[in-house]
Write a structure and sequence with these properties.
Length: 71
């Protein structure tokens, strides 16, 4: 085997090992760094109108208390 053949075989083995690692960890490793193979999807959080109104009322109460304290 020539040096070129040995280096080619080593590169092929490295690629195979990187692919196996990516399958096990869920990330894709490239020569430049790591990239996520699957992005976690976050569920969009929604708030009920009642909860939104409670929060708004509480904030108005805080603003009133702050305004009263500055007078």
């Amino acid at each position: 085997m020539s040096l070129k053949d040995v280096l080619s075989a080593i590169d092929a083995e490295i690629t195979r090992i990187e692919q196996a690692r990516a399958l096990l960890t869920g990330t894709v490793t490239t020569r430049r760094g790591k990239k996520s193979a699957t992005k976690p999807v976050k569920a969009k959080r929604t708030m009920s109108p009642e909860a939104r109104e409670r929060i708004a009322d509480a904030q108005r109460k805080r603003w009133a208390a702050q305004k009263k304290a500055t007078k």
